[in-house]
Design brief:
The chain is an alpha+beta fold. Helices cover 41% and strands 26% of the residues. The chain is built from one helix and three strands. It has one helix spanning 45-75, and strands spanning 11-14, 18-26, 29-35. A three-stranded antiparallel sheet has the order 1-2-3, with no helix packed on it.
């Protein structure tokens, strides 16, 4: 892991087309701006975790429904 110290209005570049800029630091909260290509998805970690959890639930539900369909088909 790379650890850097940055002040307000300072940036970090990732590759040639991603810039992370410190917008403000107020009361222990850092506001960060991201400049990246529109096809690059940027998510907060907790949002990504929530999406993954919902996807797991959806997959489990689909597997249960598929199992029900398979058991009905076998009985026929």
């Amino acid at each position: 892991m790379l650890i850097l110290s940055r002040k307000e209005n300072e940036s970090v570049m990732i590759g040639d087309n991603i810039t992370i800029k410190i917008i403000a630091i107020e009361k222990g909260i850092v506001k960060i701006g991201f400049e990246a290509p529109p096809n690059l998805l940027i998510l907060r970690e907790e949002l990504r975790a929530a999406i993954l959890e919902e996807n797991k639930k959806s997959l489990a539900y689909k597997e249960i429904e598929l199992g029900k369909l398979m058991s009905v088909k076998k009985k026929s």
